[in-house]
């Protein structure tokens, strides 16, 4: 995005790319939307994309690639072992992160599996700024637990704190004093996903590193959302404003013992991997790659995706490339705030996060307000968002609900995919929905998987609220689109 001033004084993000391949979209009418979401068990994960207009479920694996990434895919070296493609990728990773060793994996959660199996044992506790769903599932699978030591500002919905993803340093210090012997590693997540794509500062990461060194435990970085975090460090952290994106990346990498990432996000491709300079950690994890992922020189990734990733990582070092997501999101957040809609501020990475607890303050958390809002948004617009709240938690062994700290509807803006008029449409329909929010009712599970239930659980509305919402939509818009 370029910082170009408009003559009218208007501030809109201006794209520094042009669209050269398009995909046709379909906007089903409101009756078809009701039918589709009912078929999908009121879970947006279960919708078929033929029924989705704007797919704002996630940025994972759906960012637009550049022409250079596409071109690189043709040069891939197909080989089970010793592929040149792998060496090109490892070299790029070494150049960017300064790490000697790279273990490829098929996606981010595969890295979490390898790391958890290697480091976590029964009774361990992993402190982190905040958990991610798959991270926590892998740690608990090994008999461990997570403790979130996020700074208190992190959970404030409206705030002007620039680094809501920071670790609470005094809390971490006292936790380590008390329970340090149970800690296999400390995890920091860049662009903290579940609290609205909020970044940590470089200063905070380096303070965490100091505590890790003091207690002799490794610092593990989840770099899946690093691109957004890098941009925020560059523009929000005073001491970093003269550092290049490359220099900031290196400072981050130097502070960490292990870096893993989902390349479905970082590098706008698909795949993942673990990077380290520590020979011992590398040797401990290495045998698991052929066991769970694939041979050491592809790890479950397609060679074409690896080539695209190599180019994508290089492009991530370009501020004008990585600012597109955050600037689009900021624009959307500003428009939602103007319309009085409760949304996480400041805007973060990944997408806009609507506060469903406030939006649907007539619903209890047991009625899954964020899930209900995701369904209502789909009905009102054909836009598919994702629940990030209590539905995304796992019940306790006694069956009781773990009520989430936040109830969010995430409307992801995959990088370089949507136009501003599409963003404007989503804002418009959400504004309509906000005015009719009393019509939104709750949901309850009819089929509830034990682990990661939000992915494929099925739900039903607790009343006929969806029919009422559809009727109001038709009355207000005069047609059914
Ligand atoms: N870590 C973070 C911070 C993530 O956001 C994700 C995925 C993963 C790990 C797992 O990576 O999907 O490649 O296995 N987040 C996606 C999302 C699913 O929609 O936010 P993966």
Would you kindly provide a written description of the structure presented here, covering whatever features stand out?
- The protein is 40% helix and 11% strand.
- With 481 residues, it is an alpha/beta fold.
- It has a 5-stranded mixed β-sheet with strand order 1-7-6-5-4, with helices on both faces. A 3-stranded antiparallel β-sheet has the order 8-10-9. Strands 2-3 form a two-stranded parallel sheet.
- The longest helix has 16 residues, at 420-435.
- The mean pLDDT is 97.
- Bound molecules: ligand F0G.
Helices and strands in order:
Blueprint: H1 30-39, H2 67-73, H3 84-97, E1 101-105, H4 108-119, E2 125-128, H5 133-141, E3 145-148, H6 169-179, E4 186-189, H7 202-215, E5 219-222, H8 226-236, H9 245-255, E6 258-262, E7 272-276, H10 279-285, H11 288-293, H12 303-315, H13 319-322, H14 324-338, E8 351-355, H15 356-359, H16 369-381, E9 386-388, E10 408-412, H17 420-435, E11 443-447, H18 453-456, E12 458-461, H19 465-477
Parallel strand pairs: 2-3, 4-5, 5-6
Antiparallel strand pairs: 1-7, 6-7, 8-10, 9-10, 11-12
Helix pairs in contact: 1-16, 2-12, 3-12, 4-5, 6-7, 7-9, 14-17, 16-17
The structure holds ligand F0G.
Ligand F0G is lined by residues 58, 60, 107-109, 132, 134, 189, 193, 222, 224-225, 262, 264, 272.
